[in-house]
Model the fold of this input.
Amino acid sequence: MEKKKKTILILSILIIATIPIPIVLIYFPSEHIVGERKAFIVCSANDFYRKEGEPDFNDGFDGNFNNDHDWGLNKSDNGYGGQDNSIPGPDSNPGVVRLIANTNPNSNGFVHLEYIYNWTNYYPLINYALYNFTAWVNIQNQVGVPGVRIGLRWLNSSNEIVRTDWSNNISTTSGLWISLNTTGTANNISSNILTQLYLVLSVEGVMDDLDEVWFDDAHVEKLFPPPASSSPITSIDTDGFPAQALQVYWTLKYHGYADDNIFFMLYHTGDSIIDINANDSISNDLTNAIIDVEDDYVNATRFKEELNVSISGSFASTLRSKDQLVIFMIDHGSNTVLPNNNATFHFEADNSYITEFEFYELIKDINVERLMINVDFCYSGNFLNQNENIGTSWYNIPNSILISSSSDNLSWYWRDNSNLDNYAGSWFFHQFWYQLNQSASIEEAFNFAMNFIPIGQSLSVGIVQLPLIHDNIGINQTWSFNGPIQL
Done:
């Protein structure tokens, strides 16, 4: 009996040995393929401004207050102002603008003081440029509400005020120096052409003879939303774009993404030190970052090659159906290059760009289980939509969640971390990825970033630039780094 069993076993082995290998694979299937978490990050610029063929505006003679210019106090109530060269400012250098109450019994202590600088007496107003106005302020004692603020005041050719873009109001600084900030766009409309820009230091509220408000280091920058056809180059160190890409990279690394699964394209020419956050212990977030493509090689040609599934050896060609993929893109965007206001994504290295149609043709061929696309640039909502109905005409990319930093309008960033929010990067996506890092779901992170008000601003990011989200999977409430569906 034992001999018979052995004979049957030997015959069985011989029969199996003669089966062709493909048939053996059919009868003995491999284990279920487990997908990997992968990411594609591209930052294709590190500058915010255009070269203008003149001295650098943003740190030059026309970027700061100058005692030789024509300043004047426009007071609607009691008080006086002027330059005091004996008081040290936030940088210990003497010379501040003082606005001081000069009350009388009939005024009940209420003053309205404005120190006004007519910018366009000296420099031309650039249509559609974005003007960023900052000033340091020190309030001695306290000013009653509404308080102290700074503003960009726009006037037409008839000297009529069209609007004023104000910073936040503050009533006390506890005797310390803090920075105020406001931004505004010289966006002309045919019925009310802007021709003048005033910079305004304003104090309004109840003051007594002991109250003083000091202003110093007032500074103006003009920021362009540069079209893809012009190269935004400057000597100013602008960490914002690469800092935001690095925040995404380090967040993914912290949550277990392997460098072999992250394809990182980073343009940071001239920036060997990039500091995301002024408050953390990391002084250079470039240290130990594994970057696949750098600087001059970060261009539209390489971008399209790496996201093309049909090119052997490309990043996209390594993706499998069970993988999940995160795509993050940051740079300048434009809706002026193509017909019908369609959007483009710009590459600073060679002044190239990719159109929304080219991007869609690449992405629609990528077959993964889950895909999140973050596009962080001006007109980014337009970039992910197929016609002028922005937000209602999303490209049909299966198994995807699509998120843009703006609609068909401008996106905003901190140029570096020398602001009271203490970070360099996107007003929207910095907060979005910070919340993801704290285990928030995509929906929670999106809502938090939408409602975030950057310090010095009066409106939320959602109102200023209208970020958009479109979920083709239906998992934005559960997809997170620690959720039931792991990001």
About this structure: The first strand starts at residue 37 and ends at 43. The CA atoms of residues 140 and 211 lie 6 Å apart. The radius of gyration is 29 Å.
